[in-house]
Amino acid sequence: MSSDYFFKKWKTTLARLDEIVEIDSFLQESKAYDKTLCGASERLSGILARYIVVFNEALDCKQHNAQVQKIPFMENVVHAVSERILELKHELRKLDGSNYQFLANGMKTHRVTPNDVEFIGVPDETPRSEVLDDKLKEIFKAVKEEKERIRLENKEEINCWWDADDEEEEDIKMEEVKEKLTEEELKIREMAALIKAHERSRQCIRMRTKTKQQRARWVKELNGTLPPPARVELRERAANLIQMATRIYFKQKRTNIDQCHRDELLGVQYCEPPKMKAKAGSNELKYYWTEMRKKYMKHRRISFENLKQKYSTEVTAELKEYYRDVIRDWFYSWFQEIQYFHDIPKETDGGIVPIIKDEIPSPVVWLEEHKKALEQQKANKGKSAQELKFAKQEAKREQMLQKREEQMKLKLQAQMMKKLLKNPNQHPGYHYPISQKLTHIVEAMEEYHKYWDELDDTEVKTVKEKFIKDLDVSDACKEVKIEVSNYVYEDMTEELKLLKTALKTDYLNMGEKMLEPLKEKSKKKRKKKKKLQATISEHIYEQLQKLAMEDILKEYKRTSLEDFLGDHNLVGDDIRCNYGQALPFAGETRSVWWERCREVIRGKRKVLIVGPKGSAKTILVHALASLNDAALFEIDPCKMPGILISAVYLQSLVATITKCAQVVQPSVIYIRNVHRLYYIKTPTEIADINISLLNHYLVKKLCKRFNKTDKVTVIGTCVEPWLAKTKLVKQFPVTVLVPDTSYATVYNILYDWVTNDHSVPNDLNIQCLARALQGYSFGYIKECLKNFLSPERIVHIGAHGLKPVDVYNFILDDNRETKVDYSKYMKWYMNKTAWGMKEKKHQQEQLQFKAALDKYAEAMKKKKSKGGVKTASSK
After folding, report:
1. Taking CA 50 as the corner, what is the angle to CA 48 and CA 54, rounded to the nearest 5 degrees?
2. How far out from the chain centre does Cα 207 lie?
3. What superfamily would CATH give domain 538-567+598-720?
4. Which residues contact 765 (CB under 8 A, 6 or more apart)?
């Protein structure tokens, strides 16, 4: 894809963003009003859907942008839009009382499709250093080679233990196994060989027949016995007939294709062979654009350094003299007005830059403030340190009381609003909420238009890709001036010391007292942020290699949010409007999980994923790690041997994981089956294992070792939450419930199965099969479909075709797993999690309001009927 395409797309995206911002600001200024909760929710969801569409387009343009100087401006726009999306999600959560948003009615209003509101990525990109990436790749490669070497050594050792007698016995056993396998697979191999023989003979006969016919024609032509060609009139008639038949055929073909496209849009069936998804191509394309930007950034850095060096050699001497003259004039003006020299601001406060910009107050103003401060010091001079401390505490108490009064007023207003919302006669309705993030979008857009509008209109090649050299001139000059000002700062501080000593001696000679500077309060030293290590020490390298050998540090498959298959619940908002409980589907889960993905680089987070076994929880974890390019550490307490479970081993393991995760952050720590560490009643099969010790180190100690600023996310998965203690939810405050496998999810699995496996016929009726298989877990359906295509069945499908009943009967005959009872998960979610309890309470309040509304309507109806009877009798 060319840079010209994304350049034009970015311009159209900005135009769409301007349009939606205008609508959003108009709704806020006009204070748009809705009588019902559904109306207010639909209005907000429509605006949210429009913002998501613009966010996806802007993020796509930013990721494929080849103009390196535009990147900061584009990032500001993308960040501002993502903040507004989160704000709208928060407002919808307050309205609906649920963690999930259903956008179907809002999407219809703004003509947006469900595919348009799928998030394609996260706004922040903090790539790990190239050195760390190379080291991790080197570790994974070395571990693979080491595991292969160990496997081969073990194989050789096993072979070495065989004696001659053992070898004979083993050969006999191998022959018996081969004979058994041959008997079992004899029919399949015979049928496959027969099909191959038929195909080869058909091709051979066709080739020989063609050669024979060609030679016979040549013989007739040489002998002169070949009949003459048909007349021109007959050939023209034949050509016309062929053209007419071909036109009719292709017309019917186009009609069938249109009908197929219509059926696919309606979700009925598809007739054409489905196209393969080019997921690998997208990753390659992303890598291509990343490498291109790196190359352009490198060229720009070299050009910038050359400009800076050139400007520095030309103006450094002049700038030094100019800055010295400005500072000396400033000293002179202070001495002339108040016979005092003000200190030069410290380097942390800007150095000589505030003096040059004239940001320091004038000598007269400073002198008045100085006198007031001296009077305050004199007033406080007689007071003890304890009295001053009490005065400060009293001032803080007054501020706290004022804040509490304001909070109480807001609380009373909220309680009054709740009472009004429960009364149908006095219901105030819903106003469109005022946004605090919309100004960020406007500022980001104004900044972009200010710097780039004129350049974009020119459509020069350097505006679309690479960089514009002239734009770097001002930045190079700025950096040179800062370097010169730092050099002048050191000289002028020495000169100021000489001036102050001379001024002090003058005051002593005249017998007067010089102004003394006020004692500045010592500022608390801020803790320096730990810089991330750009390299790995030998000790950390060995620890990472050890974790990789133990399968704790994982090399995962790159995954996107789209791999979590399933559609949106298109009737969820209608169900809520009818006071029912709407279940989120995979589409709503992906939207909520996107929020968790963008939080990885914002500090330590803890997330709990709850769902049945094989419900694609690992896909969500891999998608989160892939979008943030994070290192994945996987811990499974069930796979730990009981011999190793001791305090010493677990302490060293936790210390190793935390240290390595901090070095290679952003990192994701994936704890499988964490509910087994919180069992209310320990099962008999794991009664020998010290679960409390595992819980103490693998959860509590592990989470406490990270700082709030560490880009580490700890994710726990839970299969049977009702068997665990409530401490599990307290330890993981954010809970994401994986949805049940609905018809849409199963349909997508079957569609991918038919798409990717060519042995399955394209005309298989997967609609009825998806209806029958809904309720089985995601992973179980995939595994059964994989096991279904045995060699015998592939040959049978090629000869007799495939019916949905064959697949359904195969799954029914497999007794390993039954349909999931999803009501248990919903019951636990509603009773134990924070968002579940909020949703349950909100639904009860809505049902109470509906009952009050019906009662009020009935009373009004009776009142009208009584009034009508009275008027009739009076007449």
Report:
1. 115
2. 57
3. P-loop containing nucleotide triphosphate hydrolases (3.40.50.300)
4. 269, 804
Predicted model pTM: 0.77
Pairing of strands 430-431, 33-34: antiparallel
CB < 8 Å & 24+ apart, contacts of 550-558 = 551/634, 552/633, 552/634, 552/635, 552/657, 553/139, 553/631, 553/632, 553/633, 553/660, 554/632, 554/633, 554/634, 555/140, 556/622, 556/625, 556/626, 556/632, 557/622, 558/283, 558/622, 558/626
**67: exposed, middle or buried (C-beta count within 10 Å: 0-12, 13-18, 19+)?**
buried
- Element housing 350 (H / E): none
| DSSP secondary structure of 42-97 | HHHHHHHHHHHHHHHHHHHHHHT-EETTTHHHHHHHHHHHHHHHHHHHHHHHHHH-
Q: In this structure, are residues 606 and 704 in contact, taking their beta carbons and an 8 Å threshold?
A: no
What is the C-alpha separation between 57 and 69, in angstroms, rounded? Answer: 19
pLDDT digits (tens, 9 = 90+) for 343-392: 777 777 777 777 777 777 777 777 777 777 777 777 666 667 677 677 77
Closest CA to 626 of 588, 593, 663, 587: 593
Q: How far apart are CA 709 and CA 604, in angstroms?
A: 6
**Contact by Cβ (8 Å): 473, 306:** no
d(CA 500, CA 498): 6
* Residue 285 near residue 457 (C-beta atoms within 8 A): no
CB of 610 closer than 8 Å to CB of 646? no
pLDDT at 164: 38
592 and 99 Cβ atoms separated by less than 8 Å: yes
Between the two ends of the chain, the Cα-to-Cα distance in Å is 84
User: For the ranges 161-175, 225-239, 531-545, 820-834, which has the lowest average pLDDT?
Assistant: 161-175
Q: Which of 21-35, 463-477, 813-827 has the lowest mean pLDDT?
A: 463-477
DSSP 563-607: GS-----TTHHHHHHTT-PPPP-HHHHHHHHHHHHHTGGGS-EEE
List the strands of the sheet with 667-671, edge to edge: 553-554, 631-635, 667-671, 712-718, 605-610, 734-737
Task: Compute the distance between CA of residue 473 and CA of residue 492 in angstroms, rounded to an integer.
Answer: 28
Omega of the bond leading into 666 within 30 degrees of 0 (cis)? yes
Contacts of 791 (CB under 8 A, 6+ apart): 185, 188, 192
Whats the size of the chain, residue-wise? 875
Half-sphere exposure of 348 (CA within 13 A, CB side): 3
CB contact at 8 A, 767 and 604? no
Collapsed DSSP state (helix, strand, coil) of residue 247? helix
Q: Token digits for 575? A: 């169900």
Which residue from 612, 568, 573, 559 is spatially nearest to 591, judged by alpha carbons? 568
